[in-house]
Every structure is written in C-alpha cells, then in structure tokens.
Write a structure and sequence with these properties.
- Keywords: Endonuclease, Hydrolase, Nuclease.
- GO terms for molecular function: endonuclease activity.
- It comes from Elysia marginata.
- The protein is mainly α and 116 residues long.
- 59% of the residues lie in helices and 0% in strands.
- It has seven helices and no strands.
- The longest helix is centred in the middle third of the chain and has 18 residues.
- The chain is extended.
Length: 116
C-alpha cells in the first residue's frame, strides 16, 4: 500500500519498469516508513494496555470457551506483538510493565538492534 501511494504521488504508472528503490529515492526515503510507524504505535499501545487495568486489557487477555473452527489459525493481535518484538510472550508481558524498558524496545524497533 505504501509503495503504491508513493508511485501515485510521483505519477509513475504500474506499467513503467521503475524499481521500488528508485521510487523511494525520488520521494526522499531509504525504506518504507509507514509500516514501521504503525508497528511502533501498536507496540506503544500494547505497553499502555499492560500497565493499566481497563476493559481493553481484559478483552485482550481473555479466552473464549468452546472449540476452534476448522482451517488455519487466524493471526492474533498478541501474536503480531510477539512477532514484532522478537521476544517470547512472557518476556513481552514482563517488559511492557516496565515503561523505561518498553520505550527502549519500541524505539529500536526498525534498527535491527536486539531488544535488551
């Protein structure tokens, strides 16, 4: 979606053979930023939910009784948080409770640095 938007801004047709790298250079970016911003905001919101007792926290941590439907499992919000942070879920929950540590995790999200 982001690259499509950049191509539309630059009036580059989908028929033209212009690489994503050249499109990003013409816009003035090195890599797509929108997805990274969304991931950071999602991680920050998760930390906020973990530290406060609210109905959203209860819904997020809640389990539904019954049987799972057929087919492949759906992607979950918590699974996405775990994948983005590259930590085990118990580590994610523990780290999110400490605001200072959680801020360092979210700040270094796209840097390639391992969370400490």
């Amino acid at each position: 979606m982001e690259m499509w938007t950049y191509r539309r801004m630059q009036r580059i047709s989908w028929k033209e053979k212009v690489t994503n790298k050249k499109v990003l250079e013409s816009v003035g970016l090195q890599r797509p930023e929108l997805l990274l911003i969304i991931q950071r905001r999602k991680m920050k919101y998760y930390g906020h939910l973990r530290r406060h007792d609210s109905i959203q926290k209860r819904i997020l941590e809640g389990k539904i009784d019954g049987r799972r439907g057929r087919g492949r499992r759906r992607h979950t919000w918590l699974g996405n948080i775990q994948e983005t942070s590259q930590m085990k879920m118990c580590e994610v929950c523990e780290t999110a409770l400490d605001r200072r540590r959680w801020r360092t995790v979210t700040a270094h999200l796209g840097d390639g640095m391992a969370p400490s």
